[in-house]
Amino acid sequence: MAGPNSERRAAYRNCFSAEPILRKADSDFAAGRILPRFKRLALRKYPQGNMVPPHRHLDYEAVLLCSGAYRFRINGTEMELTPGEGILVNIGDQHEDWRGDGAKFIGFSFTLEAFPATNGIPALLAPGVSPQEQRFRIDLKEAEGLARKIYEEEQRQTAFSRLIQEAISLELFWRIIQGLPRESLSTGFLDNTADGSFRARLSRLFQDHIEEVLTLDDIAKQLGISRTSLTNKCNELFHMSPGKAFCRCKMERAGYLLVNTRLTVKEIAGRLGYASEFAFSRAFRREFNLSPAEWRRNYIY
Amino acid sequence: MAGPNSERRAAYRNCFSAEPILRKADSDFAAGRILPRFKRLALRKYPQGNMVPPHRHLDYEAVLLCSGAYRFRINGTEMELTPGEGILVNIGDQHEDWRGDGAKFIGFSFTLEAFPATNGIPALLAPGVSPQEQRFRIDLKEAEGLARKIYEEEQRQTAFSRLIQEAISLELFWRIIQGLPRESLSTGFLDNTADGSFRARLSRLFQDHIEEVLTLDDIAKQLGISRTSLTNKCNELFHMSPGKAFCRCKMERAGYLLVNTRLTVKEIAGRLGYASEFAFSRAFRREFNLSPAEWRRNYIY
């Protein structure tokens, strides 16, 4: 009988192919470097249940209820979770909890860090978000699987166990973010991280027009924002002007075409909207410190 | 019948407790911020097998053989992998591969980034490492489980799928590092990442002597290195002097004691080797912008 597990296995068998899942341009450009710095991670069980008097949070805290009962108050609003639900406590929130007998939780506290740290770190949650909007939902089996792996790695204690635990926690973190209502996240956070965000839309726009010459006006118009706001956001996110970012995109595509096709340098220049092979080669060398021909000779995937 | 799976489940049931797994001081200090930037990730299958002519790598590449035959040459040395083994191709390596019919691989290429990027990025591999030492071994079932999750997330395509994929790749990355011979890794990389490294030993030393006053000489002697080398390493890793790093450790412990015990501020000062409550409070405020009393009032875990 073909159950969901055998379907899953079949899907996985099919996932091996000659095509890569992630390509250079995707992951280079889309990957945000907003990262949580974990302060504490706990798998907690309260055989007797208990309550925690009102306290204020100086870090973010994610609390996921695995089983049992959990009631709490955030900034005066009383709520209750069912297993598989969690709450993301905001920095500064006033929090007060009641845990039922035998309640089990996965919880961690964290701050955000941005790399490179330039214009500060965006808040995770939108301003004025209500406690109800801080509720998230997650696949409990998946989350508990991650918690189990963190625990197993704790027993193993190899030289890299701590970093493996961090990576697993990072997956849990993004799954929690994924489980929050999108409206609950701040614009700054979304702009840096989410697909469909400014970062992702700009990246898609560049890919779609990679054979063309785009002016600042063209880009701003396509994204439906002003030139100033385009330039500001671009500087904030990529530390370069929109034009420079577009050029980098073209050069990454050029690097790919040089290695994976037999197109001549002149043809590649044409495909990337360069009128002259010379201008293209100059831009390429500025980006990679190699001429297109040197790149093709050296850099074969 | 109690198989390994039921044992595993039992171990997991026991892992929920009132005690956190990771505590603040641990994860704050031990977590390296050397991160891979993934360029390409692929689950590749070659029904017909093939060969790739000699090429030079400009990124690191990890190739893990899941099934089938894989022979290759790195810098002239010919090798062969069995399933569950992988090879970490170094930047600059000359590489040439033969893949057998139906061979399946998990492969990704990456560069390293350091945050904050200060004194450059250490090489991953030790200088002069031989191709044999670039071989790693990994739990194939675990690695394939991670690959499957990356693939599943690719189908899902939510706003955070890309970042979830990155986190899973990061776990795979650290498991591969864990599977390499330790001697194959460069000192700079180990110093920044591994437990038992300079970073970890310094952190342990601080924890063990947190009630004392340690001079630069004391610390250098305990670690068996010179004062200059201690200061240099500390600046390199933490961007502060050894004394400042020790002070930060004490203040983190102070923050913990204030919230989790009923010790007076004077008692906590004493426990951290401060002769005067005043000097302690001043150091505390310098670290957290709050007085110990304010911290205690506001910051309850």
From TrEMBL, chains A, B:
Domain of life of the source: Bacteria
GO MF term list: DNA-binding transcription factor activity; sequence-specific DNA binding
Keyword Nucleotide-binding: no
Pfam families xref list: AraC_binding, HTH_18
Gene3D superfamilies named among the record's database cross-references: Homeodomain-like, Jelly Rolls
SMART domains, per the entry: HTH_ARAC
Keywords: DNA-binding, Transcription, Transcription regulation
This protein's name: AraC-like DNA-binding protein
Native source organism of the sequence: Victivallis vadensis
